[in-house]
Design brief:
By secondary structure, this protein is of the alpha/beta class. It contains 17 helices and 19 strands. It folds into 2 domains: 2-311, NAD(P)-binding Rossmann-like Domain (Rossmann fold, 3-Layer(aba) Sandwich), CATH 3.40.50.720; 328-487, 2-Layer Sandwich (Alpha-D-Glucose-1,6-Bisphosphate, Chain A, domain 4), CATH 3.30.530.20. It has helices at residues 13-22, 34-38, 58-65, 78-81, 85-103, 123-135, 156-167, 186-195, 217-227, 243-253, 258-267, 278-283, 290-302, 340-347, 360-372, 450-460, 464-490; strands at residues 2-6, 26-31, 48-52, 70-73, 107-113, 141-147, 150-151, 170-174, 180-181, 184-185, 206-209, 215-216, 234-238, 328-336, 393-394, 397-403, 407-412, 418-428, 438-448. The longest helix is centred in the last third of the chain and has 27 residues, at 464-490. The chain is globular.
Length: 501
């Protein structure tokens, strides 16, 4: 089939595309950023068509849906649109359904949210139902899959659970920890999304998808602790914690932003359990339980096999207009006795567990202050410890440019009274001969917004000699060490003598 996948750079879409390609389908990937699509490891595979555009634009949809047999709708504006996300999502779904009908698409496949119907349904889950209704408003057949918590490396649910359990041996929680849930492993979600294409019984149907276990959130947390090798957590539910307080607490303790935490916290009060297992019967497959799902996610993290992460989704910021107005620049350079390749390896290793090579306590303090101010802080970390791609997150930075062996640019997403970037440029030293020396230039730029931005720059400028200068020295030292190791690995080994035994 020829398939359209919206949200192709998102958590689910980014993992679904290679599975569909493996199954022999042609896949057209729709994203607002062509560069984010091009950075995906499957972008150059046969059968892939990259399509840049906005789901809100009818012309874009008409072109993207042309000649497609089916379309996956994996769009959610909860974090980007803020409080108005429900209305935005409804309008986007109505437009997508109308465009699908115009293009003659046979059916739409939608991944929504599980939850019992009724007046007490949270705004988030009610919005998922509204999207279902909007997508089914035309003659195009709709297949709806309703999932509860999705457990997988890099998922918002998994990372929230992991942070809560790892950091808090004692938890005072809202009473929602007693609510029952039926989580599902991300690998099983992907299996279902692929399988429905070949199951005629799923055309026009709605299916609940969940794993083998029904547990309370308290039991899920204890399972997480056991898998992580931690002691049993003391969990004390109290009735006075509101969704607003709960979301604020989730934001402070976990990597999840407060925009995302609020609707998720409100939805936790709803019981999310499958009404039946029809989809498993149709597929002839049993899904993983909670412990097996968590173990698979933990193993993927430990082995650096995180294919996609929740934090990599979202709108890419535009390039700041550095021309005109006040722009503060801190530029530093150093000569490094290492090849551009080794210097690049050191540069792209910053952040996450590696840290920033110098004054890490200051970076941690800045991350904590950013969390208090409502920003992402350092807890988003990075998806891969050694590689970055356009659009990836590195703590409270976003990768806005990366050229192998030449440079890296990061755009700050922390709470700031202005726009900030941090860039690294690598230039080989041709006069040194060979490929053993280069110049690394590190440039921090800040364009302030009003007086607050100017005061901010001058308040932190004294720290730059510790933070930025130390980071540059640390990167250079790490690059030299990498060069020494590379030389040792490439050096010819002496032949063993006959008498060596």
């Amino acid at each position: 089939m020829k398939l359209l996948v919206t949200g192709a750079t998102g958590y689910i879409g980014g993992r679904l595309v290679p599975r569909l390609l493996d199954a022999g389908h042609e896949v057209r990937c729709l994203s607002r950023s062509a560069r984010k699509l091009q950075a995906r490891p499957w972008a150059e595979r046969d059968g892939v068509e990259l399509f840049e555009g906005d789901v809100a634009d009818p012309t874009t949809l008409d072109d993207a849906l042309e000649d497609c047999n089916a379309a996956y709708y994996l769009v959610h504006s909860m974090e980007a649109a803020g409080k108005s996300y429900a209305e935005v999502d409804r309008k986007l779904a109505l437009g997508f359904a109308a465009a699908s009908e115009r293009a003659g698409v046979e059916r739409i496949i939608y991944l929504g949210g599980l939850g019992e119907t009724g007046a007490d349904l949270s705004e988030h889950l009610s919005s998922r139902r509204d999207v279902e209704d909007a997508l089914s408003s035309t003659r195009v057949a709709l297949t709806t899959l309703r999932a509860a918590m999705i457990i997988g490396s890099g998922s918002a649910s998994f990372e929230t659970l992991r942070y809560l359990v790892e950091r808090l041996p004692i938890m005072v929680t809202p009473k929602w920890v007693k609510t029952e849930c039926q989580p599902i492993a991300v690998r099983d979600v992907l299996s279902v999304l692929e399988a429905v294409l070949t199951l005629p019984e799923t055309v026009g149907g709605t299916f609940d998808i969940g794993g083998a276990d029904i547990m309370t959130y308290r039991e899920i947390m204890q399972t997480m602790a056991r898998v992580l090798g931690l002691r049993k957590r003391l969990i004390i539910p109290v009735p006075v914690l509101t969704p607003r307080l709960s979301s604020a607490w989730i934001h402070l303790v976990t990597p999840i932003s407060h925009q995302l935490a609020r609707p998720l916290a409100e939805g936790l009060r709803n019981r999310v359990v499958c009404r039946d297992d029809k989809i498993q019967q149709l597929m002839g497959q049993r899904f993983l339980g909670v412990e097996a799902s968590i173990r698979a996610a933990v193993d993927s993290r430990r082995e650096n096999r995180v294919a996609t992460a929740w934090s990599d989704t979202g709108v890419m910021p535009g390039d700041p207009d550095w021309a005109g107005g006040t722009t503060y620049v801190d530029e530093r350079s150093v000569e490094v006795d290492a090849s551009p390749a080794r210097v690049f390896e050191a540069v792209v290793a910053i952040g996450g567990d590696t840290g920033y090579f110098a004054a890490n306590w200051l970076w941690r303090l800045r991350g904590a202050l950013d969390r208090l101010a409502g920003g992402p802080g350092l807890r988003r970390g990075r998806r891969d410890p050694a590689r970055v791609a356009y659009g990836d997150t590195v703590d409270f930075w976003r990768v806005t440019d990366v050229v192998v062996d030449q440079g890296l640019e990061l755009r700050a997403e922390m709470k700031l009274p202005g726009e900030a970037t941090l860039s690294f440029d690598i230039e080989p030293d041709d006069t040194a001969g060979g490929d053993e020396r280069c110049r690394l230039t590190q440039t921090a730029r800040f364009k302030p917004r009003g007086l607050a931005g100017i005061l901010y720059w001058y308040s932190v400028a004294p720290l730059h000699s510790f933070v930025f200068a130390g980071m540059l020295r640390g990167i250079a030292t790490d690059a030299r060490s990498r060069q020494v190791r590379a030389r040792a690995n490439d050096a010819p080994r002496p032949a063993a003598s006959a008498a060596s035994g």
